[in-house]
Amino acid sequence: MTETATRKFSENAALIILDFMTSPWGFRLDRSWVENALPDWITAANISDQAVALKAGGTEARWRLGMSYNMAERPVDVLQRMLDACDGAIFATPNQGLALKVGQWEEPTVTLDEDAVVAFSGLTRGGDVLTRATTVRARYTSRPHKYVEQDADPWVDDEAASVAGEDGPDLSLFACPSHSQARRLQKIAYHRLNPNWRGTLVCNLRGLAAMGHRFIRVSLADYGIDETFEIQGQPAFVMAEGSVVKGIQIEVASMSAAAYAWNPATEEGTAPLVPEEIEPEERDIPVPTGFTVSRVNRVVSGVSLAFIRMTANAPDFGGDTIVFEISTNGGTSYSPVTKERDAVEAEYGPMQDGVTYSIRAVIVSATGRRGTPTSAVNLTSIFGPELVVNGAFSTDTAWDKQAGWTIGSGVASHSGTGSNISQSVTVVPGQTYCLTFTVSSYSSGSLSSYIAGSTVASAPTVSAAGSYTAYLVAPAGTTIVGFGTSGTMSIDNVSLRRISG
Fold first, then answer.
1. Do residue 196 and residue 63 come from a single domain?
2. Which residue in 455, 454, 493, 449 sits closest to 471, CA to CA?
3. Most CB atoms within 10 A, among 13, 191, 269, 446?
4. What b/e string do you get for 46-78 counting C-beta neighbours within 10 Å, with b at 16 or more?
5. Residue 19 to residue 12: CA distance in whole angstroms
6. Does any domain span residue 5?
7. Where does 13-168 show beta strands of DSSP type E?
8. Are 352 and 326 in contact (CB under 8 A)?
9. For the packed helices 13-22 and 38-48, what is the interaxial angle rounded to 10 degrees?
10. Are residues 157 and 247 in the same domain?
11. Range of the domain at 70
12. Which residues does residue 51 pair with via DSSP β-bridges, in sequence order?
């Protein structure tokens, strides 16, 4: 796993999903998958930040996420909760990228007509009898209710419900942090469940133009169809003999701009009532008791990493909550640690080498008043000694170079056919090591980094200049640390150190 950028808190749905797709705690996708579709991700992030009016006045960002998940959960299940909360969908792009589309109406720029559509199946007017709905209910995570799940005001088609009764799905929007956002998602879901048309289109090669799009126009004059459709799921290639692509198959359902239009005064509905919290103004909020800090090891994706564990006694006054805070700049500023509101323990990590963490606890009342925090406890993660000799390449020594590698001017450079540069290191099998390096100049190709013994522990390949970090579990046997490429680039500042603990 690699880390090349500074992180900061954000509720932006697109940025959170992007981080999860490439994070070692998520899908661990190579960054090239999203970099090939970066303009689409930027668009999704900008849409997520758009201001949406609220019935009570003011605005909120269009698509926010607020959630927690268990590291034992399947990444696909976590991702689906995120997508559900922003009307999101992942699309493959023609240049082998993955793009995110979040909920917003866009006029289609691709039209499939009789020249593109060669056949169709299951093309029916109206929604599926098993999925059409008169009512859409939802549960979301309400901040005013101390992050307790609440029922949103149901979205009801009164006219249809008077005939067929209130029938429809219950949406689980547990990553959705507001009632207004939940209601917007309910409206979109209602339109999606009740399309004018739905079915599967089989297209010739002209249909490939629909790749990477969420909305397309379908114009089939013989059937009286000329409207916007939403692509559902991922298109499938239609193959001819010899594994030659001859077309594409797309599941579609008609969709209207009305699904994304929004009038908060008439459509936001009524949010669940929040119980009044009564707090004496003269009450002194106490300092937390029983505050403890320790370092623990947690195995993440097969790698043992150091985390900080914090505990405290539960507050005595109803509505109070324990907030754990961490500073990495000597106490100049603190950031809260993510946890459930009523939890009295939390973990934070992984710890970074040489960083001193200042940890404290404070009690915050239901109305947001803060008490006096505890004294800060300092904890530093120290990695083991340096194992790489001449990692700065100051001399042409210590490294075994295959053809194509040279050392000079403080870097190791490669050009030509694929080959490796490596050196022997002494490691403890089964222990976790931190490998860092810099690609100081880059022209082409990809670079692999690894620790090799009887087996090979490899980091994700990199294909750009930058500084990289990988956590690798040492294999058994005589061990080397090395790099391999068939491209043209230079590396520098190689370090390998055991993670303490």
1. no
2. 449
3. 13
4. ebbbeebeebeeeebbbbbbbbebeeeeebeeb
5. 11
6. no
7. 51-53, 59-61, 89-92, 98-101, 111-112, 117-125, 135-142, 148-151, 155-156
8. no
9. 140
10. yes
11. 13-101
12. 61
Tally of structural domains, the chain: 4
Distances (CA, A) of 478 to 390, 401, 427, 481, 484: 20, 18, 9, 11, 18
Short-list 456, 490, 431, CA closest to 297: 431
- Please tell me whether residues 142 and 241 are part of one structural domain: yes
Q: Is residue 475 part of a domain?
A: yes
Q: What is the pLDDT of residues 291-343, one digit of tens each?
A: 999 988 787 777 778 899 999 999 988 778 999 999 999 999 999 999 888 89
CA–CA distance, 231 with 229 (Å, rounded to integer) = 7
- Catalogue the E-assigned strands of 281-368: 292-300, 303-311, 321-327, 335-336, 345-348, 356-364
CATH code for the domain of 411: 2.60.120.260
- Asked if 121 and 247 sit in the same domain, the reply is yes
Tokens of 291: 């505050």
Query: Would you say the C-alpha torsion 373, 376, 377, 382 has a positive or negative sign?
Result: positive
Q: How far apart are CA 86 and CA 262, in angstroms?
A: 15
- Based on its alpha-carbon atoms, the radius of gyration of the chain, rounded to whole angstroms, reads 28
Contact 201, 217 (CB under 8 A): no
Residue 471: is it exposed, middle or buried by C-beta count within 10 angstroms (0-12/13-18/19+)?
buried
115 in the same domain as 263: yes
**Residues 202-236: tens digit of each pLDDT:** 999 999 999 888 999 999 998 899 999 999 888 88
Phi, psi angles (nearest 5°) of residue 174: -75, -10
Q: The tokens of 134 are what?
A: 């008169």
Q: In which residue are the tokens 């493959």 written?
A: 92
Q: Say if residues 421 and 405 touch (Cβ distance below 8 Å).
A: yes
pLDDT for the residue numbered 1 = 33
Looking at this protein, which amino acid is placed at residue 308?
A: I
In this prediction, the residues of the chain whose per-residue pLDDT falls under 50 are 1-3, 277-278, 501
Residue 393 maps to a domain:
no
What does the block give as tokens for 217?
């126009």
| Domain co-membership, 404 together with 494 | yes
One domain for residues 115 and 262: yes
Phi (first) and psi of residue 297, to 5 degrees: -100, 135
Token output for 406: 């040279």
Asked if residue 253 and residue 146 are part of one domain, the reply reads: yes
